[in-house]
Structures are given as C-alpha cells and as structure tokens.
Amino acid sequence: MTRHEMRESAFMLVFERALTGEDVNEIIETAKESEAVPVNDAVLAAFRGVEQNRDQIDACIRPHLKKWTLERITKVSLAALRVAVYEILFVDDIDADISVSEAVKICETYTTKEDTSFVNGVLGSLVRQYREKQKPAEAENIH
Question: What span, in angstroms and rounded, lies between the C-alpha atoms of 25 and 107?
C-alpha cells in the first residue's frame, strides 16, 4: 500500500467517524469485514492518532477557518483537514507540504473544487503559522 493509499484509507475512516459518530473500534471492524476500505497497521495508526488527538487537531484548525466553524465545513473537508493536521503535528518523518498536497489530492477526488481550495487555504495558513512557531526553537538549538 502506498502512502497515498494509506492516507486515503485513513481519510475514509475519519470521514466515517465524523459522519456517523460510531465507535472507533466498530468502524475498524466494519472496514476489515467489508474490505471496502483497505486497512493495515499504518492506516489504523493514523486513524487512531487522529481520533486520540482530535481536540488538539481541531483547536489547530479553528483559527484558520476565517468566518467558518468546524460545524459548517463539509465532513469530507473536515476529514481531509484532520488527517493532514495529524501528520503535520504528530508524524515527524512527513514534510508538511506533502501532507497539504495529499489532502488536496484527496479533496480533488471526493469533493468540490471550492472545498478543495478551502482545504488548501486552511492548511496553507496553518503550515505558515506552524513554521513561524518552529523557528525560535530551531534557533535556540543552533546556539
């Protein structure tokens, strides 16, 4: 399974959770039984990571919504945002630009052009802020 396929499967599980509110373990079992969504350890780790850190992830997304709320965003866009932000915040071996690019690709497949642009804009703003916050820490490590 490629990293893109892994992200897409994690996105589908996160979307299912946002849509139905079902228990994480029930969603995983259903995905395994139906084989509609390919799952492996990486997919499950990403899905569980998003769900375990959802409050922190959502708190990072909110300031970048500009006159929107999480409740107003489509579930597809929200799921794509959550997977990307999870990677940006919690997965060290993935560059933030790749996470943004992958979220945009997923949106291009599953949602409208407007939603794709919206997700790209939110993630772009979030990544710029994230990088600005990282600079002082990096500078301290240099000295």
Answer: 25
